[in-house]
Each structure stands twice: as structure tokens, then as C-alpha cells.
Amino acid sequence: MLVSVLDLLSVFIFALTGALTASRAQLDLVGFVFIACLTAMGGGTARDVLLNRDAVFWIADPRYVAVATAAAILVFFTAHRLESRIKTLIWLDALAVSVAVPVGVAVARGMGFDWPVLLIMGMVTACMGGLARDVVCNEVPLVLKARDLYATAALAGAALNVVVYMATSSPLFAALACAIVTFTIRAGSLALGWRAPVYRSTPPRQ
What we know:
The chain is an all-alpha fold. It is built from eight helices and no strands. It is found in: Cell membrane.
């Protein structure tokens, strides 16, 4: 039940970001729906294929497509009212990532996988949909923005999920801790300039 609620929520929020990207590209309504669905379900689809689940989540339950489509239509008629679509998109994306990470971890845990797979599936679920959205719309992917804490935030949240679950055996506490830490790190990167060290090349020695 927890996974289903979080999954629907992440699909809705990610779909909003996809539709906002479509608005920046000035697509028609069908384009809005396509980009919204690609963003909302891309990460979960990659996760389910990699885990070899019996059925991809949105094929098994068409409600996810309906939720993503509703989000796309909502944005199509209201995006022009936003003062800054890019700022709204970035913050909604941060919220969506924080919800998607615990979903990916929970799905992998429910299938009996060990912690390395849980970490990777948390990141895949959170990052792949946004990556597909930005690539298709010819935007610089948020996940690849230099020094921004995006994948790092997802990894940290997934790791905390694993640790809290080992300590408490509570999927609810683990999911909440994961979501809070993921959003805090991502928000800190956006609002406070938190950065991770990056590789810097040096001239070869003579």
C-alpha cells in the first residue's frame, strides 16, 4: 500500500515536470502527454525491466497512465500562469526524486534483492525519467548539471533507507527518512549551493 501511494505520487509530480518541459518547448497537447508519461514512468520502467518483474508497473495498472495524462492536461491549461516555469520545474523535480527513491528501494527489497541492488534501483527509479525527459526535449539533463547534488542525493537517500530498515524493520520509517534526506540534500544544492568535489585535470608532467 505504501509503495503504491508513493509510486502514484512520484508519477504525478514527475509528470508535472515533464509537462512543464513540454510547455517550454511549445508542444501540442499530445506532446505534453507523451513527455509527461515518458518522465513519469521512464525510471520505473527501467527499474522493472532490470529487475525482470512479471509486468512493468504501468502495464499492470493503467491508473499510472491516467494520473500522468491528467497532470499533463492540467499543466497544458495552467502553465502560462506560472511566474517562472523553469524554477517550478526544478523544485518539483527535486520533490519527485525524493519520493521516487524510496519506491525504487522498496520494490527491489520486496523482490528479495540485497542492498547493492536496492541502492541502484533507488537511483534508477529517481533519475532515469528526468534524464529521458531532458534528452528528448533537447535540454541539459538536470542529473548531469555540473556539481549539482542530484544522483548524489538519490544515492544518499537510498543508503539511509537501507540502514534505517536494517535498524527498525519498518518500511514506513525507512521511506520517510529516505525522502527527507534526499530532498534536503537536493534542496541544499539548489538553494544553498551545496556542491560535491569534481575531477579537475592537470597538465601532464614533463
